[in-house]
Amino acid sequence: MDRRKFFRLLGAGSVLALFKARAQTAPWDEETFAPMKTLGAPLSEYGQRSPFEEGVVRYISPNLRTRHSGADFAPLEKLEGVITPNGLHFERHHGGVPQVDPAKYRLVIHGMVERPLVFTLEDLKRFPSVTRTYFIECAGNGQNGYRNPPDPNLTATRSRGLASNASWTGVPLALLLKEAGVKPEAKWLIPEGMDAAAYTRSLPLEKAMEDVLVAYAQNGEALRPEQGYPVRLVVPGWEGSIQVKWLRRILVTDLPAMAKDETSEYTDVMADGKVWAFTWIMDPESIITYPSGLQQIKPGFHEIRGLAWSGYGRITKVEISFDEGKTWRQATLEPPVERYAFVRFKMPWYWDGKEVVLWSRAWDEKGNTQPTREEFFKKWGKNNRYHYNAIQAWRILSDGRVVNGDRPLGQQAFGPVGGCGGEVFDG
Ligand SMILES: Nc1nc2c(c(=O)[nH]1)N[C@H]1C(S)=C(S)[C@@H](COP(=O)(O)O)O[C@H]1N2
Ligand SMILES: [Mo]
Question: Which superfamily does CATH assign the domain made up of 86-273 to?
Fold first, then answer.
């Protein structure tokens, strides 16, 4: 946007008022110089964040029955840019986090191959490597949206925090498969984890050959144990549940396994009771992180900020509505806009102190966008608990409090929300 348009949008007077107000009110006293007067902390071998930032943590629901088979949420509204710091990447485990000794680590590729192979971690690191930024999103992300009536205390974290975005380094799975020599009749891979859940999924060979990574690094350092140390699958754009962590073997075969982790969970129950299996690709999503649920704002200038992503490809635009979908304005996308990765969107905004509802919707390069809540339920029904991607509304009350702006659809409550992303865990 050019400068003139920017000022027209804000009203130049209000910008001046903003800066004037700031100069007058920020305190400036002896305390400001305190750090200059004493010797600082010594060098340290592994850096830690400021103790003042220790409140920025993953959200673990108090309703979970166990912390070993459950999920926690990345604190989206407390993060900037697009990279999720390693200590704040959301977690989803079915049998706790195993401790794996990298010296004893082995990856087996067997089944319909010319040469069954066993790799050490060192072997994997000798292959040509690839580093790419990809989001990982649990199929259960957005699950709180299925609640009716909607939770008034929803935050951006609890709305969409079962998604995170990192720079992953690893070997293309296609290279390892080439090494093993896949037989022509093979169509599926059955990757398995070494956690107590013996977590197992079925992955089409076609996707594996396209862009799947056998990843050993996350944002420049070894994977965190929670993310699958020492090795996990990264399956760009697809639901988190197929991205097997603590990967120990890949069986090459001609049929899907129909494992417990893709039948009892991660299937979608439609309005007519029919069940869909293998809904891998994540639909477009966006979430305004500022201003968002349970924050408090003052009248004046604000930069609306948020995150958008899609499993179908690059984000092409994000739109914001201030009148519940009657009109839309296009937000600025912060470059680089990468495929299958979080994108940061922004819009300058002057809040006049009147109650207003903010909506955001993302568009991807395949022309997909997000439905309203009503449209979503019309299409998918209310029996499901996965792949909720309806527009998240935030209502700014006239006192500046921000609350969930989703209006109730009716009076019926449709059951406790369980499973993957559930804050009431049922499995
Ligand atoms: N071995 C193993 N892999 C797993 C899981 C698991 O429980 N065990 N959970 C899956 C699910 S449902 C999701 S959403 C992602 C979560 O990845 P993260 O914990 O790194 O965010 O891991 C997937 N891979
Ligand atoms: Mo998941």
Answer: Oxidoreductase, molybdopterin-binding domain (3.90.420.10)
